[in-house]
Amino acid sequence: xxxxxxxxxxxKMGQAVISAVSADAELELAGQTDVGDDLGKTIKDTGAQIVxxxxxxxxxxxxxxxIINNGASAVIGTTGFTDEDLKAIxxxxxxxxRGVLIAPNFGIGAVLMMQFAAQAAKYMPHVEIVEYHHxxxxxxxxxxxxxTAQLINEAVGQTNPPAVESKEFLAERxxxxxxxxxxxxxxxxxGFVATQEVMLGALGQRLVLxxxxxxxxxxxxxxxxxxxKILDKQGLIYGLEKLL
Amino acid sequence: xxxxxxxxxxxKMGQAVISAVSADAELELAGQTDVGDDLGKTIKDTGAQIVxxxxxxxxxxxxxxxIINNGASAVIGTTGFTDEDLKAIxxxxxxxxRGVLIAPNFGIGAVLMMQFAAQAAKYMPHVEIVEYHHxxxxxxxxxxxxxTAQLINEAVGQTNPPAVESKEFLAERxxxxxxxxxxxxxxxxxGFVATQEVMLGALGQRLVLxxxxxxxxxxxxxxxxxxxKILDKQGLIYGLEKLL
Amino acid sequence: xxxxxxxxxxxKMGQAVISAVSADAELELAGQTDVGDDLGKTIKDTGAQIVxxxxxxxxxxxxxxxIINNGASAVIGTTGFTDEDLKAIxxxxxxxxRGVLIAPNFGIGAVLMMQFAAQAAKYMPHVEIVEYHHxxxxxxxxxxxxxTAQLINEAVGQTNPPAVESKEFLAERxxxxxxxxxxxxxxxxxGFVATQEVMLGALGQRLVLxxxxxxxxxxxxxxxxxxxKILDKQGLIYGLEKLL
Amino acid sequence: xxxxxxxxxxxKMGQAVISAVSADAELELAGQTDVGDDLGKTIKDTGAQIVxxxxxxxxxxxxxxxIINNGASAVIGTTGFTDEDLKAIxxxxxxxxRGVLIAPNFGIGAVLMMQFAAQAAKYMPHVEIVEYHHxxxxxxxxxxxxxTAQLINEAVGQTNPPAVESKEFLAERxxxxxxxxxxxxxxxxxGFVATQEVMLGALGQRLVLxxxxxxxxxxxxxxxxxxxKILDKQGLIYGLEKLL
Lengths: 244, 244, 244, 244
Description:
Chain A is an alpha/beta fold and 244 residues long. Chain A is built from 7 helices and 13 strands. Chains A, B, C, D: Belongs to the DapB family.
């Protein structure tokens, strides 16, 4: 039995993780923490081996460090990590011999979408990403969109720039953020949980890879899998697909 | 028989208009002009009553003025007009007793989409627009997207702001341009002609109004209709729906 | 305070209605019934004025009759009613001076989609419907799809038949069911709650009206509204839009 | 220089192929044939090595046989071939030492969609296909949809049946045609050229692979490639991906 602490226990993802951990025969819910609680002390007191963290981008680094410095491994669904963050986490967790999984998305369909996007962009290098989330999401663009753009950029040496540099008539930019040459657009509306479209265009045709999450249950198989595999790892693992 | 000049005759829209005008029993193609030609002189020489203009945002005002100052009425598909532009055109064309139709979109389906968007936003005031065009389009966002946002803003006193002001992690903005509180996102890829989605969200549901143009034939019934009705008008008419 | 019984209390919609009724200051949850319970006796014992029914198509008529014959009004979300059913309910409920609301869909966005579909079909009479529901739904096509097709058929004298009668190469029919000339396609997959697309085509363009429900909360404002208005009515009211 | 005959020369695809062949430096347009012409004689007279055939499902077998029996290789875009057809063509073309490429779709994006569908179905075995074509298409479902379903059935031992066998309330079937357990729905409307969605559902999530063709130019790179590779082959090659 692995002992698990859920950090961000009052949030919707935290609640779903608590249910999923409680229902699993090989996992034990050792503690629940949230803003204001002493996570480090809870790890020590309970002897938990793993912390699942779904909290806020503003405390992303502080939480990872608290987890690994107190002897636990980390399964992280919080978003907002920069390249510098990831390098630092990899170095620190290797030194401490702890595993840290950071997954922009725990849904198998989303992982497939990201892999297909990178494959398809080799043949259809004109590509943009539009992601849609509920209007309480704290960051933009989503971690999944950033991860997708990174995978595309790694797979394709040169995604093509627009043929025409459009002149914009509104003060703010309508053409989205750029990661490399991949443009990302973020829509925030009630009536969405988490949706992403990767759009690849070519002469006279296009291919759209769309993933839609309609509730948080869809992430739980991925979270549980990560809990069961993270203790064997050291250093940063970025993306659920690395554990499949 | 109305005598028509097509300005922007070398462009794809211009070519489609030339075919459509030539095929219509009540219209006569009196001339074709493009960059470098003297439009004013051609109007005088041919005695054309109407100029259909599909050119470039950068010459939008110059062309309208050339048309009405030389005694013709104007059917304009060029985009990029600002509020100040529209006011000036209305005043100048009234003074000259000429009609100027400016239509962000000549497709009946697009006009329906815009009207439905304004109606639906009264009940579902959380709304964003994503428009998709080919990568040779010279402006962003599209005239149709701007017109849609204007209609929504006129219909709804207050479209709701996001519940959370998202923190952005990429240097450029992913959340699009704003017109009032309506956010607009512009995607530019080969494999599109002109597509727009108006997305309205509410608790647990959403309504999406999507219009897709796959070739320029779809605009021709609207352009021909406009040619046949513009001679009876004076001043600015903004939007094909005003002629339906 | 109106006294409400929820019939189909063990189902997911029933559970959502129980929560919504319990949370409303003007409504009182007087009873919960399901398969095997005596609904008629429960109405008598509790003195409930209204029964909200989300049960199974196979018992749709029996339940409506039990409700109105025991002196209550009915708010019905169960689907599967035929034209003959609706006529019988109208006649019987008028005789008993009870109101019966049958709504294929309690979501405001869905009601807007249906109205827009009927309006747009006047200008774009080539139309088909694709509806997507979870794979536990007991009937096909959905009540919302049937209602939409009826509204289109009422609004448009003639929706156009296909230009070519396609030859089919598979034993079963791929081109869907027909209601009048409107074809309806039903997809049943996990990962959907309730989604519908009305697709209207014309030369070179199309308009798609898409409504997506991602959880049952979206229906509750409509159910509560219906409970508060049904006591003033007699006979059948078909469609939530009649109460707006 | 390969000598090419285009059969179906008066059709829209035929016209596009004629333009593409004429524009290619390594190919020579040796002849154009259509209904009423003697294809066999034209092959003999011109000495053409390859016939590109985009005609009608009703003459699919007759044309293939005429081509290979007169000594040419075949690049076939016509649809409607059954399993028995394909077996017969493979046997006959091997005997004659001619190559026959039959491709349900010549677009690279469509080929990617089919491959991704088969891969994803291993992880998400609940899958249905909806295809959308213009209303002059002579068969349903499309060759691409049938090919996609075949690839999914080969990749996945068991695609899951619906959890509930839905009761249908309309006389004709709304749930589409079945190939194995994969349901296929065919929409026929103006405003489409050729679009397909493969929808894969799982608990709380779904993945949609959508390919959209907006004009026939998109197929030409695939047709030209097939012409250049087919002379090296013998027997049936089914699917453009086999030549990539």
